[in-house]
Write a structure and sequence with these properties.
About 50% of the residues lie in helices and about 10% in strands. It is an alpha/beta fold and about 650 residues long. It starts with a strand and ends with a strand.
C-alpha cells in the first residue's frame, strides 16, 4: 500500500531528500562530469577491494550523462522541426532559440539566464521522479546569471518573472501514482518540490536578492500550490522580504513557509564533535522535503519514517500490548494501575517509547541497506561533493555530516498533554485512580463523559503555561535523545525529525483513546509544534512562547501550522506586525512556521460543494494542496485549526 509507481524522467528509485550541485552543471556543464569519469577510468588500477565497484560507477556516469545530453538534443530536434513548420515569424524565432539552447545545455556551461534556467530544468527532471526533488538555494546559484543579463540589458525583470511562472506551471505537470497509504498521505496533489530562498551567505551576511522577490511574485501570480517556496529567516532578514512573503501568504496559497536559519545551522554545525560541518558549509543548507534540512551536495537523507508517540504511550499503559493489532508488540514495563508515583508511570512510558524507537530504527536500517543495494543512482550521486572522484553511490558512502535517516515524531503534543493530565488529576488532586483511567480509555470514554470532560479541560500546550509546556518539551527531548543514541548503518546515528505531513490522520486512526480527552481513532495534533485542535485559546504569541520551550536545534526539521482569518491581514501594518512576530520566534529557537489565510466558511462549503471551489488551496503540512482533493479527515483537520487574530 505504500509503494510508488513513479513518473518523471530520472533513473532514481523515488524518495530521496537531497539537493544536488546544480551550480556545477550550470557553470561547468555535463561535459565536465563525463570528462572526469573518463579520466578516472583512464587512471584506474585494480589495487583496492572496491575498485570494480568504482569502475562500474564511472562507466555508469558516462552512460547516463551521455544519454542525458542526447535527451536534451531530442528537444532541440523537435524545436527545429516546429520552427520549420511555423508561419508566425516571432514564434519561429523563439523555437529556433529554444533549439539553440537545448543543443548547448546541459552539455556546455550556461552563459545567460535563459540557458541557465533550461540547464537547471533538465537537471531537475533527471532528479525526478522523487516526490521530494529539491531545487536547493535557487536564488543563490541562479543569481549570477540574472545579474549579468540584467546589467547587459539582455533580459528584463518582467521576462524573468514570466520564465519563473512558466517553471511553476511545468512543476505542476509532474505527477505520479502510488499505493493506497501514499494516496492518503499525498492527497491534494501533494508534492515537495522545495525552492529555498533568503538566508545567509557563507560569511553570515544576508543573501536576499532580486530573484528572492521574483520567485515570490511568480507564486502569487500563478496561484498554484507547487513548487513550494520556503524563506530562510535570520536576524538581518529585510522586513521588505517578510512583507512580500506575507503578501504571498495572504493571497491564499499557503506559502511561503518560514524557517529559522540559526536553528538549522546549529543542527549541521554543532550536533557533535564527530558529526558536524564548518559553519561556512552549514550556512549553505536548504529544505529538501517539507522542511527537512540538508546542505547542498554535502548531505542527504534516504529514509524518513513516522513514529506515532501516543500509540507507543498507549502500548506502555497496556504493559506492551497494542490495542490496535491485538498483539504484544512492546516491552513489559509493569502494571500502571499498581504504580504508586507519577514518576514511575512517566518512566514506564519513556522506557516503552525508547524500546519501540529502537525497533523502528532497525526497520529503517534494513530499508537503507536494501535500497543501497537495489537502487544505485549515479546521476544524483555524481552531483554530490567529490561525487565522481569518490566513485560511489551517495547511499554507499559516509559524508562529513551523516544525515542518512530520520524518524519523525507524530503526536508528541497529545502525549505531553496526556501525561500532564494524569499527573494533575490522578496524583496531585487524587480525583481519579489509574485503574479508573484505564477503564475509561479501554471503553473509549463511553460512559465516562464527566471524567472525559475533566481530562479534556486540563491546561493544554500552546497557551504559554509552563507546567504543561514542559511535558511536551520533555517528550521532544526524549525523542531527540533516543534518536541520537541509535546507530545508523551509514554511520553516526539516526536523526530526529518532527513533521507529520498528513501522518497525524492515519496515526490517529490506529491509536486508541488518550488521556488528553481524545477518543480513539480521532486525528492527532497536526505538524509537531502546533497545539491540538481548538486548545490554543491565548493567541499566536502564546503558541510561539510554548514552542520556544522546546529545544528544536537537535531536529532536522519541525513543523508549526497557524491559521488566520483573511480579515486579520488586511493592511501593511498587519503584515509588519506578523513579520516581526515570525522573525522573533525564528531567531529565538524556533525552526518553522507556516500559515493558512482562508475563510472557514469557504472551506466548509468547499467540502460540501467541491465543484464550486476547484482552485481553493490550503497549507496542509510542509506543502500546499487543493482543498477539494484532500481526504475528508484532513479537510476536517484543516477546517478545525484555531483561527488567530493579531
Amino acid at each position: 500500500g505504500g509503494g510508488f509507481a513513479m513518473s518523471g524522467y530520472g533513473l532514481g528509485p523515488g524518495f530521496s531528500l537531497v539537493a544536488v550541485d546544480y551550480a556545477k552543471i550550470l557553470n561547468e556543464g555535463a561535459k565536465s562530469i563525463i570528462e572526469e569519469a573518463k579520466e578516472c577510468l583512464k587512471n584506474l588500477r585494480y589495487e583496492s577491494p572496491d575498485i570494480i565497484e568504482k569502475r562500474d560507477f564511472w562507466e555508469g556516469v558516462i552512460i547516463v550523462f551521455e544519454a542525458w545530453v542526447r535527451f536534451a538534443n531530442r528537444y532541440a530536434d523537435l524545436a527545429e522541426k516546429m520552427a520549420a513548420e511555423e508561419k508566425d515569424e516571432k514564434r519561429a524565432a523563439e523555437l529556433k532559440e529554444m533549439a539553440r539552447i537545448c543543443r548547448k545545455v546541459p552539455y556546455e556551461p550556461a552563459d545567460t539566464f535563459r540557458e541557465a534556467l533550461q540547464s537547471f530544468w533538465f537537471t531537475f527532471l533527471m532528479c525526478c521522479p522523487s516526490p521530494t526533488t529539491s531545487a536547493g538555494r535557487f536564488d543563490q546559484y541562479m543569481y549570477p546569471f540574472y545579474k549579468k543579463d540584467i546589467e547587459a540589458g539582455i533580459i528584463t525583470d518582467d521576462e524573468v518573472l514570466e520564465l519563473l511562472e512558466i517553471m511553476r506551471c511545468k512543476c505542476m505537470k509532474i505527477n505520479r501514482v502510488s499505493g493506497k497509504a501514499n494516496r492518503a498521505k499525498n492527497a491534494g496533489m501533494a508534492k515537495w518540490y522545495n525552492w529555498t530562498i533568503g538566508g545567509v551567505k557563507a560569511d553570515g551576511s544576508d543573501a536576499t536578492n532580486e530573484l528572492s522577490y521574483l520567485l515570490l511574485e511568480a507564486a502569487q501570480d500563478t496561484h498554484l500550490p507547487h513548487h513550494t517556496v520556503t524563506v530562510r529567516v535570520h536576524k538581518n532578514t529585510p522586513m521588505k522580504l517578510m512583507i512580500k512573503a506575507l503578501e504571498c501568504v495572504r493571497s491564499g496559497i499557503g506559502m511561503p513557509a518560514f524557517v529559522g536559519d540559526e536553528s538549522y545551522i546549529n543542527f549541521f554545525a554543532k550536533q557533535s564533535p564527530t558529526n558536524c560541518l564548518p559553519i561556512e558549509d552549514a550556512r549553505d543548507w536548504c529544505c529538501t522535503g517539507c522542511v527537512d534540512g540538508n546542505v547542498q551536495a554535502q548531505t542527504r537523507t534516504q529514509v524518513a519514517c513516522f513514529f506515532i508517540i501516543p500509540q507507543a504511550m498507549d502500548i506502555a499503559l497496556h504493559n506492551g500490548y497494542c490495542r490496535y493489532t491485538k498483539e504484544m508488540v512492546g516491552k513489559e514495563v509493569g502494571d500502571v494501575t499498581k504504580m504508586e508515583t507519577f514518576d514511575e508511570i512517566k518512566e514506564a512510558v519513556f522506557d516503552e517509547i525508547r524500546h519501540l524507537m529502537r525497533m523502528a530504527n532497525e526497520r529503517i536500517n534494513v530499508e537503507m541497506i536494501a535500497e543501497r543495494d537495489l537502487f544505485p543512482d549515479v546521476f544524483r550521486s555524481s552531483l554530490m561533493k567529490d561525487g565522481v572522484k569518490v566513485g560511489k553511490d551517495m547511499f554507499n558512502r559516509r559524508f562529513q555530516f551523516e544525515n542518512g535517516a530520520v524518524l519523525g515524531a507524530v503526536g508528541a503534543v497529545n502525549a505531553g498533554n496526556g501525561l500532564y493530565a494524569i499527573k494533575k488529576l490522578i496524583f496531585d488532586e487524587k480525583k481519579y485512580t489509574m485503574a479508573q483511567l484505564m477503564a475509561a480509555l479501554d471503553a473509549d470514554w463511553e460512559g465516562y463523559d464527566e471524567m472525559r470532560a475533566d481530562f479534556a479541560s486540563q491546561p493544554k500546550y500552546g497557551n504559554n503555561i509552563p507546567e504543561v509546556d514542559a511535558f511536551v518539551a520533555d517528550m521532544y527531548k526524549l525523542h531527540a535523545d533516543t534518536c541520537l543514541s541509535l546507530p545508523c548503518v551509514y554511520g553516526d546515528t539516526l536523526k530526529p525529525n518532527a513533521i507529520s505531513i498528513s501522518a497525524h490522520q492515519p496515526g490517529g486512526a490506529v491509536t486508541g483513546a488518550t488521556p488528553d480527552g481524545r477518543k480513539g481513532g480521532e486525528i492527532l495534533a497536526d505538524a509537531s509544534l502546533s497545539p491540538a485542535h481548538g486548545t490554543d485559546t491565548h493567541g499566536p504569541i502564546a503558541v510561539f512562547q510554548s514552542a520556544m520551550k522546546v529545544d528544536q536545534d537537535p531536529y532536522q526539521g519541525t513543523l508549526m501550522n497557524m491559521k488566520f482569518h483573511p480579515s486579520a491581514l488586511k493592511s501593511e501594518s498587519d503584515l509588519e506586525k506578523l513579520g516581526s512576530m515570525i522573525q522573533t520566534y525564528l531567531t529565538h529557537g524556533g525552526k518553522h512556521v507556516q500559515f493558512n489565510v482562508v475563510n472557514k466558511e469557504e472551506m466548509v462549503d468547499a467540502k460540501e460543494h467541491p465543484e464550486d471551489h476547484p482552485e481553493l488551496i490550503v497549507r496542509v503540512a510542509g506543502y500546499s494542496a487543493y482543498f477539494t482533493r484532500l481526504t475528508p479527515g484532513i479537510q476536517d483537520e484543516v477546517i478545525n485549526r484555531m483561527d488567530h487574530d493579531l
